[in-house]
Amino acid sequence: MRLRASRVAEPIGFDSLRSLDETRWQSILSGEPAKAAQWLEAAARYGLVEAQTLFAQLLLDGHALPKDSARAFRWFRIAADAGYAPAMNMAGRCLEHAWGVARDWEAAAAWYRRAAEASLDWAQYNLANMLLRGRGVPRDRPQALDWFLRAAAQGHAKSMNLVGRFLEEGWEMPANPSAAMAWYRRSAELGDFRGQFNLATCLIQAGRIAETTPWLQQAAETGSADFLREMDVWAQLHPDLCPKPVLQTIASRLAAIARGHGGAIPSTMAPA
After folding, report:
1. Are the CB atoms for 136 and 106 separated by under 8 Å?
2. Burial bucket for residue 49 (CB in 10 Å: 0-12, 13-18, 19+)
3. For residues 59 and 79, is the Cβ–Cβ distance under 8 A?
4. What is the pLDDT of residues 216-225, one digit of tens each?
5. In this structure, are residues 140 and 151 in contact, taking their beta carbons and an 8 Å threshold?
6. Distance CA 240, CA 250 (A)
7. pTM, entire model
8. Exposed, middle or buried, 204 (CB in 10 Å: 0-12/13-18/19+)?
9. Which of 45, 123, 163, 179 has the largest count of CB atoms under 10 Å?
């Protein structure tokens, strides 16, 4: 990780810190978490925007540091104000979900748009979701689809799933089940659990039930808590379509989540 400065002035020791090569940074970041956090905080205080963003993420997640969402938001804002697109996106996430700051959907959408216009795929996806739902911006499905397509063109799996949804539902275009299935497959193959589930349901509708088990199993193994609850409702309504091992995986993971551990850790970059 080669870090860029967001400040003009260079405090003592800045040059040596900046000169650390990719191998050394990867060694630090993959090493003992508390030590990595110390290095990131030092680099953040020297004004390095990537370090500010990573340090903020540690604070937001409570990983290697006490969880402090308010402090995380402040660091995201510092890097965002310096023009760093991933930090702009995370400032939007904090504002959308009231992580360390009062919820403000309008401000969240504005940050997403700035990062989206800088070609960050996650921000394009997040802005598209705001436009699709009418959160902080007027509801605008055509514009949402455009941003989903831009992110999908960069290989963004969750956006591919949403393009499939537009095609399946006939939003802003004639419904096209075969094209929807193709998009769901691309999303599923890249590991998105919703894409995997949606591909499975399309296969069921096409009478290709024997092909669904691997996709349902993968979705059950990696889905977020909210998704698993949705999948559980579907499975209970369609017991003949959901194989027993998949049902067992859903039940096991939901039980683990109820105990406070064992669930998938959704990315904080985007909605799960």
Report:
1. yes
2. buried
3. no
4. 999 999 999 9
5. no
6. 15
7. 0.87
8. middle
9. 123
